[in-house]
Write a structure and sequence with these properties.
Layout: H1 2-6, H2 9-26, H3 28-31, H4 62-98, H5 100-115, H6 118-129, H7 133-142, H8 146-159, H9 163-170, H10 175-211, H11 222-229, H12 238-264, H13 267-277
Helix pairs in contact: 2-4, 2-12, 4-5, 4-7, 4-8, 4-10, 4-12, 5-8, 6-7, 8-10, 9-10, 10-11, 10-12, 11-12
């Protein structure tokens, strides 16, 4: 998968940019040692050597707050993707391997969750009980696994009759060993392509909740920065522009990486892509 992805220049460039943003975001204290909440008299100051991206309506440095907002977005997006991936893989593996009533119960549960829009459920919970970041992450992760489970189930159905699985069963391997040691490594690559999509879903959902005013007030969020800066769009364009551009860039990079992974994991799609390039 890595070799196939490495041959695609655009997804690789997107991955490098995303890795650089992630490194800068999580090394924010070392790179930008200023307090992101420190206020000054430089209210609505445009871009200058003192404030490279300008200052907001409270005189806070936008660049510093932007870096901390990107860090929060990465934290939410990756956490949501990992929770959804963990639940979806387990459910898909069990449903596909055992079949019968176990598959029926698990897949109907997944269908029920697909009917419920995860964002609006998170919005309702955040409005009623507060939008703490941990609560938002857990809720988005718990409601985001059905698509993963469907992909994992389809892979298991195509793998459980394979020769290497039959050989392991003939050698007396337990069901748990067959599922997690034989089938899982081969079913995992197609699921990994969904990681980028789930990460962008988590970033957009958290930014939307903060934009609507029900996010975590103790966390610097790109959505909150965008929402608070909209009223200054005509007088100080840099206040809402840079947080909005950061959200757009993160989601764009993740979608490019997701498309690249899909092509890398699909030989037929990769062959079509090479023909178009030729």
């Amino acid at each position: 998968m890595w070799v196939a992805l490495r041959r695609q220049p655009v997804p690789m460039a997107a991955l490098c940019v995303l890795a650089a943003l992630a490194f800068g975001a999580f090394a924010a204290r070392a790179i930008l040692p200023w307090n992101p909440n420190a206020m000054s008299a430089d209210t609505l100051t445009p871009m200058s050597p003192a404030h490279l991206l300008g200052a907001d309506y409270l005189g806070r440095d936008i660049l510093t707050r932007l870096v901390y907002g990107i860090r929060a977005s990465f934290l939410v997006g990756v956490s949501v993707a990992l929770i959804a991936l963990s639940i979806g893989l387990v459910v898909g593996l069990i449903a596909g391997y055992y079949g019968g009533w176990v598959e029926a119960v698990l897949m109907r549960t997944a269908d029920a969750l697909l009917i419920l829009p995860g964002f609006f459920l998170a919005l309702l919970v955040a409005y009623l009980f507060g939008g703490r970041l941990t609560s938002v992450i857990l809720l988005l992760g718990v409601t985001g696994w059905p698509q993963i489970s469907r992909i994992a189930r389809a892979e298991v159905l195509s793998l459980k009759a394979a020769e290497f699985v039959e050989s392991a069963r003939a050698c007396g391997a337990s069901n748990r060993r067959i599922v997690f040691r034989e089938i899982l490594p081969n079913a995992l690559p197609p699921v990994l392509a969904m990681m980028a999509i789930l990460t962008s879903y988590g970033i957009l959902s958290e930014a939307s909740l903060s934009f609507l005013g029900v996010g975590d007030p103790n966390v610097i969020s790109l959505g909150g920065m965008l929402s608070n800066g909209l009223q200054y769009a005509t007088t100080a364009w840099w206040v809402p522009t840079f947080p909005g551009a950061a959200i757009f860039l993160l989601v764009l990079l993740l979608n490019i990486i997701g498309d690249g992974l899909s092509v890398a994991l699909n030989p037929h799609a990769a062959q079509i892509g090479r023909r178009k390039a030729a």
